Amino acid sequence: MVLKNGPKNPELSTTPPSPHQRRVRYRGTHPRRFAEKYKEHDPERYAAEARKVMESGKTPAGSHRSICVREILEILAPRPGEIAVDATLGYGGHALELVRALLPGGRLYGLDVDPLELPKTEARLRAAGIPAEALMVRRTNFAGLPRLLASEGRQGVDIVLADLGVSSMQIDDPERGFSYKLEGPLDLRMNPQRGRPASALLAALGEAGLAEILRENADEPHAGSIAASICQTRARQPIATTGALTRAIRAASFPGRRSKEEIDASVRRTFQALRIAVNDEFGALETFLRHLPDCLKPGGRTAILTFHSGEDRRVKKSFQAGERSGAYARIAGEVIRPSAEEMRSNPRSTSAKLRWATRA
Ligand SMILES: C[S@@+](CC[C@H](N)C(=O)[O-])C[C@H]1O[C@@H](n2cnc3c(N)ncnc32)[C@H](O)[C@@H]1O
Q1: Up-side HSE of residue 335: CA atoms within 13 Å toward CB?
Q2: Residue 41: predicted pLDDT
Q3: Residues 95, 108: contact at Cβ < 8 Å?
Q4: CA 69 – ligand 1 centroid, Å
Q5: What is the dihedral of CA 124, 126, 130, 131, to 10 degrees?
Q6: Burial of 112 (0-12, 13-18, 19+ CB in 10 A)
Q7: How far is the CA of 92 from the centre of ligand 1 (A)?
Q8: Which pLDDT score, from 0 to 100, does residue 320 have?
Q9: Residue closest by Cα to atom 5 of ligand 1
Q10: Rounded to the nearest whole angstrom, what is the distance from the C-alpha of residue 165 to the centroid of ligand 1?
Q11: What pLDDT shows up at residue 3?
Q12: What integer pLDDT is reported at residue 209 of this predicted model?
């Protein structure tokens, strides 16, 4: 769950399996593949297994451990009767904590672009006992928040939270192509029903355009040689899988002797850059940030959790500009990082940066 609290908070664990579903068969003594990890997919029934996975610093398959929950609740200080938006609902970990604090009388709008995870998350939140009128779930891009609020007849809300990037459910599902560590189709879309997969983007881009994306979206220092290697590979055969892209990146001519860790970092950054391009993440973030002050009531609070410099830079600049223009009364002076304990227990939190602002 907020698998920060993990199975200690079992309400958010998972949807119950259909009674007629047979569990997937696997080879050997332990399930290895994402779909085979049936105990991790059902932490309510197998709480001890999910806890063991978390204690080893991993995230149980099909779930997500929410980051900086305590810090976010302190900043946003949700109160009964207030109206909040979780612009990136994900697994619903932050949302559950927020909505509980808004009761009685308050309401949370939970937004996400992911049509595969959103219904599961809504079912978990409902199963956790959140009343129908206190939670509105919408599959929509947070760039369209002003439109959503207008359609709800709201001038502004008390709280807006955004926890950017992708969830562990998305990363760990090989069918979605987010992880270079897992063989799967090269898709990388948060909404696989919209737009084109990363394989199509790669097929369409010229070498210079590809290098530019790697530089702009991920500060990749070897952007030129990686783009050249991808284009050479692509000339022989289309790059359709995560494995094929990973091999093409590894085949690039990196200057000097590069360690495996350094080359892995280039692979990770290349996937990140393509993911940002495929989902137009910077475009959506910039639109969201531009409209954010208008979506908050006077005194409203916002917190944004980012995972790389391209996101953090945009949030910081937008908050600083908002403070100068008088839209924000106060903004975070320093970025807030997860505690050492959280970074140790959840390595996916290590790159997280949290910033906040208060509407004038
Ligand atoms: C890091 S996860 C959020 C996890 C969540 N805070 C929790 O506690 O479970 C980010 C989520 O935001 C969604 N997302 C990313 N960009 C989005 C956008 N522009 N609009 C709406 N949802 C978005 C992703 O699909 C993903 O589910």
Answers
A1: 18
A2: 73
A3: yes
A4: 15
A5: 170
A6: buried
A7: 9
A8: 98
A9: 90
A10: 6
A11: 35
A12: 98
Phi and psi at 178, nearest 5°, equal -85, -25
What SS3 string covers the chain?
CCCCCHHHCHHHCCCCCCCCCCCCCCCCCCCCCHHHCCCCCCCCCCHHHHHHHHHCCCCCCCCCCCCCHHHHHHHHCCCCCCEEEECCCCCCHHHHHHHHHHCCCCEEEEEECCCCCHHHHHHHHHHCCCCHHHEEEEECCHHHHHHHHHHCCCCCEEEEEEECCCCHHHHHCHHHCCCCCCCCECCCCCCCCCCCCHHHHHHHCCHHHHHHHHHHHHCCCCHHHHHHHHHHHHHHCCCCEHHHHHHHHHCCCCCCCCCHHHHHHHHHHHHHHHHHHHCCHHHHHHHHHHHHHHHEEEEEEEEEEECCHHHHHHHHHHHHHHHHHCCEEEECCCCECCCHHHHHHCHHHCCCEEEEEEEC
Asked if 331 and 357 touch (Cβ cutoff 8 Å), the reply is: yes
- Residue 212 tokens read as 């530019």
Which residue puts its alpha carbon closest to atom 27 of ligand 1? 90
Which of the residues in the chain have pLDDT under 50? 1-11, 13-18
Contact residues of ligand 1, CB 6 A cut-off:
2, 64, 66, 88, 90-94, 111-114, 117, 141-143, 163, 165-167, 190, 284
Cis before 115? omega within 30: no
pLDDT at site 44 = 67
Output the CA 112–ligand 1 centroid distance in Å. 6
Q: Count Cβ atoms below 10 Å from residue 132 Cβ, excluding itself.
A: 7
pLDDT score, position 256: 83
Distance (Å, whole) CA 111 – CA 113: 7
Phi (first) and psi of residue 311, to 5 degrees: -75, -50
Residues written for the chain: 360
State residue 171's pLDDT score.
95
